Each structure stands twice: as C-alpha cells, then as structure tokens.
Amino acid sequence: MTTLLPHKFGPYGGQFVPETLMPALIELEREFVSARNDPAFNAEFDKLMASFVGRPTPLTYARRLSEKLGGAQIYLKREDLAHTGAHKINNALGQALLVKRMSKKRIVAETGAGQHGVASATVAALLGLECVVYMGSVDIARQEPNVFRMKLLGAEVRPVESGTKTLKDAINEAIRDWVTNVRDTHYLLGSALGPHPYPTIVREFQSVIGREAREQMLMDAGRLPDTVIACVGGGSNAIGVFSGFVKDESVELIGVEAGGSGIISGKHAARFGDATKARVGVIHGTRTYVLQDENGQIAETHSVSAGLDYAAVGPEHAMLRDTERAFYTSATDEEALSAFQTLCHTEGIIPALESSHAVAEVIKRAPTMRKDQVILVNLSGRGDKDLNTVIKELGQNL
Amino acid sequence: MNRIENAFKNKPIFMPYFPLGYPDLSTSIDVIEALAKNGADLIEVGLSFSDPLADGPVIQQATQIALEKGITVKKSLEAVKELRKRGVTIPLILMGYYNPMLAYALEKFIDDAREAGADGFIIPDLPMEEAEEFTLVAGDMPLIQMLAPTSPDERMESIARNAKGFIYLVSVTGVTGARSSISDSLGDLISRVRSHTSVPVCVGFGIGTPEQARQVGQLADGVIVGSACVKAIGGDENPVKAAREFARSFREALNLSS
After folding, report:
1. Facing residues of A12 across strands?
2. B103–A279: do the CB atoms touch at under 8 Å?
C-alpha cells in the first residue's frame, strides 16, 4: 500500500498502529488531501479562522523586554490571543471540519495541559460533535481550570489512571477508545506526532502561524528574523511557526524542550538533550526520538508544564534536528518560571508555562546578539491555566 | 514439517496468551508449561511493554505487574529456553510491542529468539506497511499478520497473500478483553479471509468462555484466548492448578466443535 502524502520524515514517522486502525488512517489521509484541494473546504476553514478563532493573531514588538536584555529585538507571535488561549485551536478546527466531511459524529482527544482538550471541546460545540477528552489524573490536578472549561463546553473529561497518569497515558487511552469506536469516531490528535498522516495534517493546520508571522515580520520589522524560537513538547506550535521560515536559510530555528529539574537529574522531557536516555524508537504509532530505559520501556518524564511533559517528539523535528535545519535546546522548570515572571513584568503578558520555556531561551540568547538582530518567539499560549502551578511553585516569592 | 504447521494437524486449535513475568517470572514459566501440557496447541508468550495501546485493562495490569517485578526481553527469552528444556514442544509465539524489540536490537532479538526456541512473532503495532525491516531479518521465522473487521477486501487480500504461519483475525474492533457474546458476522468475516489465503485462520479478541471458544471453533482453525486466560490464572491462589484446569476446559470445549 502506498500513501498519497510522504509518510516519513527521513527515517522518522511511519504508521506503527494496530491493523484495526490502518483503514481509518488511510481514509483520513484521503479525506485530508481531497479537502485541501477543495476550495469550499478551504474557504470555510479560513472564514472560521477569522471569525471564530480571531486570526490573524498579532505580532507584538516586545520593547521593554528587548531593552532589558540589551541585545536582539524581540517580537512575539501572539497565539495566546487566539480563541481558547493557545495555538491548539488551529489544528482542532481544521480536523473537526474533516470530521464533518467524513460524516463521523464523535471525536476523542488527549490533552496534557488541557489546551488541546479545550480546543477540541470548543470545536465540538461549534460543529455539534460529541467529544470525549482523555486526561491523565496528574494533569487534571495541575490544570484544573481547563478541566472545568472542557466540561462547560459540553465535553466529557475521562481521567486516566494508568501508567504515569500524564499525556502519554492519555494518548494510550484515546487510541484504545478510537480502536474500539473507529467506525463513527475520529481521533483528534493535538500535536505533530502519532502515525502518518497526523504529523503532516497537524503541521499543515498549524502552518498558518508561520505564514502570518513571516508576513508580519516583513511588514513590521521590514525584514525576516535572525532566529525563530518555540517550545517543543510534541512540537505542533514549533512546527507551525518553523514551517513559515524553513525555506529561508538565513533564519535560525530553535526548539526548546522541557529541561525539568535539569538534564543531569534525569527528571526532564528533553528528548534531544539526554543521549543516555533518548534513543530512536517507536511510540504511539511513530518512529522518533523517545526517552526510554535500556529495556525499551518508555521513561517517566517531568516538567512543570504539562504540555511539554512527554517522552517522544514529533518525527519531523527529529528530521530537522538530524539535518541541522533546526537546533534544539532545553530550559529548566526554574528558568521557565523565571521567564514567566519576566514576561509578566516587562510586557504585561502572562504566558503559558510551555511558552515560558521559549521565553527562557530568548532571555539566554538575546543578550549575546546585536541590537540590529531580531528574534521571533512563538508565544503559543496564555498562562491563566497555570496560575495554580505558579502559585504553588513560587509561593511567597510571588 | 515445522512446529506451527504441525500444531494445526488437529483443528480447531487452542491458543492461550500468557505474559512472562506475571505474577512473577518463575510462576509464569510454570503456568505456560501447565498450559502446554494440558491441551494448548500453541501459546502466545507475552512480552511486556509500558504502553500497550492495543490491550484492555486485564492485560495492561498483568504486564504492568510483570514490569514492576523486573521482566525484560532478555529474561523472557531465557524463560522460553527454560520451557524448551522442560519438554514443551508446541509452538511458542512471542507477542509484544515493537519498541522493546528495537531497543534490544532487531537482529539480535530475532537471533536470540530463534536460539531460545521461539517459533514466530506477533507485533500488534507493526502493520504490513512497516513490517519489511523486521521480516527481512526474521527470514523463516514468521511474523504473524493480523487482520481486523475494518480491513477492506483489497487490503485483506494483500495481507493474506503474504501471510505465513497463520492469520490472526481480530474478531471485534477494540482492545483485548472478553466480550459477552460472539459477533453474528464472524462467520462472514472468516469466509472473507479464507477467500484470500490457504493458511489457517485463528480468531482472537473477545473470547472469554469455553462455550464461546466452541462456537468460534466451529468457524475458525484456531481460537486465541488472552485476557480471560490471564484473569483466570493470575487471579487464582494456585496459578499452576488454574492453568491446568483452564487449558483442559477449553480443550474439551474445542474437541466438541471439531
């Protein structure tokens, strides 16, 4: 069987799923290809992206942060201002429109930080679909506001108690539901991972970030950025913004993984940062870099941000890293929390803890750059959902 | 005649699944030996994985316990060798997810499995599209192909055409685990598969009782029982005795359907 779209990114990607799901993946790919060639589909998507999501999201020049750091000029792509407060809505809306085309009535989704769960619940309400969101019980405890939000939007939130009770286990449960109900259910996967065609579909629906940002940079700064920085969990916001610049060879692309308590501590989610624990493997339908033990069991990960707390990385990032088109680094919990506060104070923006990892890299990097250089950072989401975590972490220091 | 072909001489055959390392390694070896010597014709020997996405709660919990007790691919292969030493002569098929095999190194895994006395592999997350790198190395050791109720005819044909050993037909959409009844459409599904291949067709997923096994045995060449086997044996105070009784009850039921 051959696929309509490339199903691998170099040696990464592929379709490592039970046979029961293969026909659904083939149908999804076919539907996606036909939808993208259908002007009516694209018109409906674009219209809702403007009238419902609120696109284009602004590009904000971070004047005070740039001055404080004393180096490169910093621009923020404001995905935090998209409806529901993060970039996740772009992909959720696109896939939900595909679900309508496939005449399926029910979606299941996984969520870590809750942003993809909220986005899925939102588009399900908008389009009249039944929605079940799987969420690890550890994540439910640390992202409570988003759990309420999903329920208000009419979704059922099913706590996942298996394994490490985080994003990885939520994906397992979503896949188990999907394999059981595949005839009437679509798995609305929220990141650029999983089996083909998901990494490609998610990138395409998120590529609006990069397209808009590139135009806005040219318009506002009169030039392309020298460096684009984004946080990388599964990697959907990063692949979305990178896709706008990947052909501009002068633009450096930097992904920031969760450094947790530090690489040496072993408590982190830095798939590219820890050669002792990360090897190429297969998880959730895709071949990519996976944090695992020497026996091939998937490792427990740690991050203060639920959205980055995942043992594998999207397969396209694995290829971009091998080909050195993008570079990957990490920020620790502490650095992310500090960056979180810095952005609050200097720009009046409360970023998501995930996005704070990207800001932490800006704080390290901008002072080493010249004042006529430009950094674009993708501010993937807003931080309201993280207030409980931040209060707990910072305590009296706040 | 190899062990797998030999096993299908008296159809329908009984194929229980049991994971090595559950409830502990030495008990699991005793259990598999007891299954083999009390009526099982072929055993699916389970290799544990932290993220078994095709499995229901019973097998999830059992393999989780096996991992907590320290099971590894290496120890599992040593256990297969031990079973051969104890005079187990029926086919032993290793059933597990792909990542631990990759971590062990594919070539070494297949070599060591052959050396230990395994007869083939079932890998639920390795569909036809991705199987080539495995089958090229595996040579004459069959990678058992799975078919599902959702597989369209064209796909069924291309999978069945290249099938070796037997076909593992997943009887229901879903994860492993017993169901309350056998689907009415199973006969049609089996006929569809048979129209594409002459290798034996075995049915798994959802079969929990000897009576269900008897019904399926009237249609299929083999009956695969996983979760019900794990539950009945793992939940018993004397797992080896439970294994003997479990195997005998299914064997007797299947004798009635032949």
Report:
1. A9
2. yes
